[in-house]
């Protein structure tokens, strides 16, 4: 596997991921309401119509399911571009990329930007500084994300192994 290519893929992926998350979030924070801490959601729903936010609700499954399918397709292409030629190299490349994005999402997007950008606060929750700075909430969800990433990355390894 070509490390320089993998590192460039990580850099470009982080930029694209930031755009894919932050642009919709700044335009309409409610679109990502299912990813906000529960106390923020509850405060928002005191003055707004309740919408499904449970992890297994149809809107959440649709958004996250589509994202996983897109990730799988991208991971296969990026693993091949980075020189993966068997299951383990493809799995390692894709899961390595998944971890880079997962940790970047937690430690920078969630802990720094989400916590401090007033533009991404839900209407009626602008005053809830402490709730927006919940590091444990975002860290726990990052750990869930690491486990969730195993499925598309294992599939990526299998697909590359069958292709090459």
Give an overview of the whole structure.
With 164 residues, the protein is mainly α. The chain has one domain. Helices cover 73% and strands 0% of the residues. Helix 1 packs parallel to helix 4. The longest helix has 30 residues. The chain is elongated. The mean pLDDT is 93.
Provide the residue-averaged pLDDT: 93
**Protein structure class:** mainly alpha
Order of H and E elements:
HHHHHHH
The count of DSSP E runs of length 2 or more, i.e. the number of strands, is 0
User: Which stretches of 5+ consecutive residues score pLDDT under 50?
Assistant: none
- Overall domain count: 1
Radius of gyration: 17 Å
The share of residues in extended strands comes to under 5%
**What kind of sheet is the major sheet?**
none
| Helical residues, percent | over 70%
Gross geometry: elongated
Query: Distance between termini?
Result: 14 Å
H/I helix tally: 7
Can you summarize this structure?
The protein is mainly alpha-helical. It has helices at residues 3-27, 38-45, 58-81, 87-116, 129-132, 135-148, 150-163. The chain is elongated, with a radius of gyration of 17 Å.
Question: How would the blueprint of this fold be written?
Answer:
Elements (H helix, E strand, L loop, with lengths): L2 H25 L10 H8 L12 H24 L5 H30 L12 H4 L2 H14 L1 H14 L1
